[in-house]
């Protein structure tokens, strides 16, 4: 548990703005601010104002000189973000007045808050669970409207409720087993098939959550995507088209792009971290061959490959090299320059080359054809097309790891049941699964991990 300090931090970004807010939380917050605040209405006393009200007045230094004209909002525990007394001071948004008010607050005994400490208080004081605390950060950092929507779902506790329900059901299975162990005379043993069926139902729900977690992570972090293809197929043109700006150099000379260019963009709601690469071919020189090596590395690391082919050239030897590199990867094949009349490749022929792993679509990077089709194809390839809208989506690697553990323990329980092992073995597996689920909402996580999660936050949140 955190030592009972009075913490303070700037809640808004430091810089010139209309308003800047300094937030205090902890016992004595109201008293501290009252000691440096003169209400404009002399009959008012900050110590006596109703909770959750705003008072106009001045912050004054020890000499009684006015530092800033402010609005002060007093919020009494426990109906606050941190569940402690909270005071927010809304200053005029200049750098100097805010700094002076902050200095005064620190001088009067508050200490500067650590990153995410207000949210950590909210977690430690039971106002929100860990998944909800993470959602606060995700909402701040959301890169796409879908990412923000997921963060909101998580923030309002939808995920926590789903996880809670699953844990209750695991508890029920566990309770039955424990009753059979403790009171063998009084409790009828559950038939093996029935026990297996109950676990299989839970396993299915965990699988669904895991599927959703892959998508949830993509929405939070962006899908690592790479553009590959032989020189001159239009990779850089596609990047520029998707970005809506002339980011990468485009010429009709093959070998224009020599180094990786990475950009973040949102395509029909899907956030992509997209890398444009040097065209892949039998290299013409050292710089180009280094560029091609980097392109291959980027391809290795990508979650998704967008492989471009030029419909006007037919499938060339360089294209065969690109096709070879696609083995074992997920991606979409793009037949580019579909606006030109002299077509040498049609989707059907291409599909025979790549198999049904890769959807094949015709586009024109130059004219912007096929964006919607590309977005749909990406969603299908990453398996998002099959996830129902209302499915809960977990968003972090940490969640995914915990779910994998739950899945693993349930499999182990099924093996134990099938092998007629003593009930104690099954009970241990189910208990482990229950506990791994608790990690997601922060009930069964070591303190260091919790601290590292909050250290990602900005100061003042
Ligand atoms: N007609 C037509 N021309 C295109 C299209 N896409 C690209 N081009 C042209 O093809 C040429 C090469 O485009 P780039 O985007 O530079 O190709 P790249 O794949 O990045 O090439 P490298 O960087 O050399 O590997 C340029 O002249 C583009 O204008 C398209 O969809 N239709
Ligand atoms: Mg290029």
TrEMBL record:
<feature type="binding site">
    <location>
        <position position="88"/>
    </location>
    <ligand>
        <name>(6S)-5-formyl-5,6,7,8-tetrahydrofolate</name>
    </ligand>
</feature>
<feature type="domain" description="TrmE-type G">
    <location>
        <begin position="222"/>
        <end position="383"/>
    </location>
</feature>
<comment type="similarity">
    <text>Belongs to the TRAFAC class TrmE-Era-EngA-EngB-Septin-like GTPase superfamily. TrmE GTPase family.</text>
</comment>
<dbReference type="InterPro" id="IPR005225">
    <property type="entry name" value="Small_GTP-bd"/>
</dbReference>
<keyword id="KW-0479">Metal-binding</keyword>
<dbReference type="Pfam" id="PF12631">
    <property type="entry name" value="MnmE_helical"/>
</dbReference>
<feature type="binding site">
    <location>
        <position position="232"/>
    </location>
    <ligand>
        <name>K(+)</name>
    </ligand>
</feature>
<dbReference type="InterPro" id="IPR025867">
    <property type="entry name" value="MnmE_helical"/>
</dbReference>
<keyword id="KW-0378">Hydrolase</keyword>
<feature type="binding site">
    <location>
        <begin position="336"/>
        <end position="339"/>
    </location>
    <ligand>
        <name>GTP</name>
    </ligand>
</feature>
<feature type="binding site">
    <location>
        <begin position="232"/>
        <end position="237"/>
    </location>
    <ligand>
        <name>GTP</name>
    </ligand>
</feature>
<dbReference type="InterPro" id="IPR027417">
    <property type="entry name" value="P-loop_NTPase"/>
</dbReference>
<feature type="binding site">
    <location>
        <position position="127"/>
    </location>
    <ligand>
        <name>(6S)-5-formyl-5,6,7,8-tetrahydrofolate</name>
    </ligand>
</feature>
<feature type="binding site">
    <location>
        <position position="251"/>
    </location>
    <ligand>
        <name>K(+)</name>
    </ligand>
</feature>
<keyword id="KW-0630">Potassium</keyword>
<feature type="binding site">
    <location>
        <position position="236"/>
    </location>
    <ligand>
        <name>Mg(2+)</name>
    </ligand>
</feature>
<dbReference type="GO" id="GO:0005829">
    <property type="term" value="C:cytosol"/>
</dbReference>
<dbReference type="Pfam" id="PF01926">
    <property type="entry name" value="MMR_HSR1"/>
</dbReference>
<dbReference type="GO" id="GO:0003924">
    <property type="term" value="F:GTPase activity"/>
</dbReference>
<keyword id="KW-0547">Nucleotide-binding</keyword>
<dbReference type="InterPro" id="IPR004520">
    <property type="entry name" value="GTPase_MnmE"/>
</dbReference>
<keyword id="KW-0342">GTP-binding</keyword>
<feature type="binding site">
    <location>
        <begin position="251"/>
        <end position="257"/>
    </location>
    <ligand>
        <name>GTP</name>
    </ligand>
</feature>
<feature type="binding site">
    <location>
        <position position="257"/>
    </location>
    <ligand>
        <name>Mg(2+)</name>
    </ligand>
</feature>
<feature type="binding site">
    <location>
        <position position="256"/>
    </location>
    <ligand>
        <name>K(+)</name>
    </ligand>
</feature>
<dbReference type="GO" id="GO:0030488">
    <property type="term" value="P:tRNA methylation"/>
</dbReference>
<dbReference type="InterPro" id="IPR006073">
    <property type="entry name" value="GTP-bd"/>
</dbReference>
<feature type="binding site">
    <location>
        <position position="23"/>
    </location>
    <ligand>
        <name>(6S)-5-formyl-5,6,7,8-tetrahydrofolate</name>
    </ligand>
</feature>
<comment type="subunit">
    <text>Homodimer. Heterotetramer of two MnmE and two MnmG subunits.</text>
</comment>
<feature type="binding site">
    <location>
        <position position="461"/>
    </location>
    <ligand>
        <name>(6S)-5-formyl-5,6,7,8-tetrahydrofolate</name>
    </ligand>
</feature>
<dbReference type="GO" id="GO:0046872">
    <property type="term" value="F:metal ion binding"/>
</dbReference>
<protein>
    <recommendedName>
        <fullName>tRNA modification GTPase MnmE</fullName>
        <ecNumber>3.6.-.-</ecNumber>
    </recommendedName>
</protein>
<keyword id="KW-0963">Cytoplasm</keyword>
<dbReference type="GO" id="GO:0002098">
    <property type="term" value="P:tRNA wobble uridine modification"/>
</dbReference>
<keyword id="KW-0819">tRNA processing</keyword>
<keyword id="KW-0460">Magnesium</keyword>
<dbReference type="GO" id="GO:0042802">
    <property type="term" value="F:identical protein binding"/>
</dbReference>
<dbReference type="InterPro" id="IPR027266">
    <property type="entry name" value="TrmE/GcvT-like"/>
</dbReference>
<dbReference type="Pfam" id="PF10396">
    <property type="entry name" value="TrmE_N"/>
</dbReference>
<feature type="binding site">
    <location>
        <begin position="276"/>
        <end position="279"/>
    </location>
    <ligand>
        <name>GTP</name>
    </ligand>
</feature>
<dbReference type="GO" id="GO:0005525">
    <property type="term" value="F:GTP binding"/>
</dbReference>
<feature type="binding site">
    <location>
        <position position="253"/>
    </location>
    <ligand>
        <name>K(+)</name>
    </ligand>
</feature>
